[in-house]
Amino acid sequence: MSDKFYNLKHFQFLFSYFTKMGASKPIFRDLNAEDPEPEATEIESLCVNCHANGITRLLLTKIPFYKEVVLMSFSCEQCGFENNEIQSGAAISPEGVKINLRVETQADLNRQLVKSDYTSIKIVELDFEIPPKSQKGEVTTVEGVINRSIAGLQQDQVARRIQHPETAAQIDEFIQKLEKLKDLNSPFTLILEDISGNSFIENPQAPKKDRNCTTHFFKRTKEQDHELGIFTPAEVGNENSSGILHRIPENEFTLEDLEGEVLQFPTNCSNCNSPCQTNMKMTKIPHFKEVVIMATSCDTCGHRTNEVKSGGGIEPFGVHIEVLVNGREDFSRDVLKSETCSLQIPELELEVGPHALGGRFTTVEGLLVAIKEQLDNPNFSHMFGDSQTAESKGRLEEFFKRLQEVLDGKFKITVVLDDPAGNSYIQSLDDENKGLKITKYERTFEQNEELGLNDMKTENYTSD
Description:
Layout: H1 3-21, E1 40-46, E2 53-62, E3 68-75, E4 82-88, E5 96-103, H2 106-109, E6 112-115, E7 119-123, E8 128-130, E9 138-141, H3 142-154, H4 157-163, H5 165-181, E10 188-194, E11 200-201, E12 213-218, H6 222-227, H7 233-236, H8 255-260, E13 263-268, E14 275-284, E15 290-297, E16 304-310, E17 318-325, H9 328-331, E18 334-337, E19 342-345, E20 350-352, E21 360-363, H10 364-375, H11 378-381, H12 390-407, E22 413-419, E23 425-426, E24 436-441, H13 445-450
Antiparallel strand pairs: 1-2, 2-3, 3-4, 5-10, 5-12, 6-9, 6-11, 7-8, 7-10, 13-14, 14-15, 15-16, 17-22, 17-24, 18-21, 18-23, 19-20, 19-22
């Protein structure tokens, strides 16, 4: 079944779903005992094996750590052919993702792994690569990736041993190398690179930093955007054509208009993907800069989000902020954490990446509460549901206990903010900046690359 055919079925499913439900329930819902019979749509479709008519069943749900998904199951009563597939139902991430995992122990082999259709998988030590779009998206483990690779190589070995014995012998030798990886006689490196940004590898030490796994986000190229079906307004249609998008005339919205009123634009709920409205307003933080405040409220599932983005561009230097939190006065400090800012609390062995909490304008106490609420989210605390071990559960409970003691003021901590874009801020309580250390630094090449600054042209940018 082709991707084009699936897209048609996906559209038919959404249309029939809204017709039947009237959007009275969230589109993507968790599977639980309170909702034992979620809506599944059946579509008559062609069997690719015998060309008779079979049935495709589609279900929209959510997988922890992996956004929304469309589960598809096809079965043919004529020949017995069956096919199951998973596709992402969420919006494409603004950036691609590259995940490097050093596999050293059995626990690393058991890590949960989510890959999309656009994910390439590499095993560095064997110079082995699975190209993107060669396998469908799936939820598996690191060991499951190896087993699926072995199964794929073994698929035509019987015929190959007769027709091309030398090639078959080489493949058998390589299969043995893949089998030995599972014995962990020596560590190996697994790399996932996904231009859609919808891949993930579990951190078994959460909420502590993952020492064996690093994640890097990157800007997609023009060709990669086109592969995902993303086009610029100029590519879709200019202002003189009847394209889908059109250019906003210059000075249609002045700065006074933006600062003086709340703007609204349609979007989709980040929790259930139902249509909703996002409110946006520009304002200025005293002694800092202009920011854009965005708030979304979903009438379908009740989910609410608030986010703050810098309205003043990227600063010339990055900023590293350390604040000692030792009492109620420190809890009341105003904090602006931008979407490019990472957070650390050394006393709790906690490290939060820049994309985890998003942009927020809050207090130190509000920042700690937000961390607790996000970690206490069922999608996180259940760690893929039944796969959660007693060790990981106990570690998370101990972390919550210590974090609550911090909120109760029982011991002091140091909150460290590091923002390469320089758009984060913590309020100073006095002229001497007691308990507060702010350091500005030159960004590295990698940080500039992640911010998209290395290829930015600020002079003669209209020329070729």
